[in-house]
Amino acid sequence: MKKVGDGTRILNFLIDGFFVFLLSYAAFKYWNFYVVYWHFKPINFWWFIAGVLFVYYSFFELIWARTPGKWFSGTKVVDQHGSHPTVLQVFGRSALRLIVIDFFFNAFWGKPLHDKLTKTEVVED
Fold first, then answer.
1. N or C: more exposed end of the chain, with fewer CB within 10 A?
2. What is the mean pLDDT of the chain?
């Protein structure tokens, strides 16, 4: 189990962030159609990003232990023993990503908050 470096993690973040933004933007535009024509209540774009981010990471990491960004870089998520993370670990990782300062913990612990608290690692496949 070889842990990945910061460059690989940034690449994963950029690729996955692009997909999260596209899906969030599509959902936001879809909702705004109903806001304009059916007078639904407007919702801030941040809520779409938060919801899509949680569902995106939970879906991919629950089923395959990797996201499209991790597929591209040849990495995956594992627990401390090197096996597939549990459902609670995946949901915890997805929820902790919503904290804006998540990546700043990398400077103190050598890994982001969502990895430290859920006891998971991103390793080479």
1. N
2. 96
